[in-house]
Amino acid sequence: MSTSASINIRLNCEYVSPTKIINIFLDNGWTFNDNGFISYLPIGDNDDFNWQSKNIDKDYLIKILAKKEQKKELIGVVITWKDTEIGGQLLIWDKGDISISLTLNRKLIDTDKSDRITDVNWYLKRILPIFPVNNLDIESFCYEEHT
């Protein structure tokens, strides 16, 4: 049985650039490291979610994301926390809605081995504070987990 877990955030602002949101994550401990590659949704993906994993550098990816932003396409990148390899797929819509699917080495609460409950506080402590310190207010956020 697989589990899906995600954190969804709505910012309280008219518009914030998706690339600015990406840079806020990067400036606050998150990386693009996906097992030594950078994974992202390519230009023209049109909600096919055809993730690409390539050996490219951050600057090249930012150029791709800027083009996607100009076209008002869904921005998607895999992010991980520092050197932990814990992270997931970060999706940013052009209206500032953000979703993080916790797919990479999902952090679990230390309980009985049969319980595979996500340690949501671990993620919230590393995600929610990055917005107010960058003058972005959170209108709402929610956590979902399905088994």
Description of the molecule:
The chain is built from three helices and eight strands. It is α+β, with helices and mostly antiparallel strands and 147 residues long. It has one domain. Strands 2-5-6-7-1-8 form a six-stranded antiparallel beta sheet. β5 and β6 form a beta hairpin. It is globular. It starts with a strand and ends with a strand. 26% of the residues are buried.
Radius of gyration, whole Å: 15 Å
Q: Kindly estimate the percentage of residues that lie in beta strands according to DSSP.
A: 25-35%
Shape: globular
The tally of domains stands at: 1
Tally of contiguous helical segments: 3
- As laid out across the biggest beta sheet, the strand order is 2-5-6-7-1-8
Outline the biggest β-sheet: 6 strands, antiparallel
What is the helix content?
10-25%
What's this model, at a glance?
This protein is of the alpha+beta class and 147 residues long. It is built from 3 helices and 8 strands. It starts with a strand and ends with a strand.
Main attributes of the structure:
single chain, 147 residues, alpha+beta, two-stranded antiparallel ribbon, 3 helices, 31% strand
Question: Can you lay out the helices and strands and say which pair or pack?
Answer:
Elements: E1 4-11, H1 18-27, E2 30-31, E3 38-40, E4 52-54, H2 58-70, E5 75-81, E6 87-92, E7 97-104, H3 120-127, E8 138-146
Antiparallel strand pairs: 1-7, 1-8, 2-5, 3-4, 5-6, 6-7
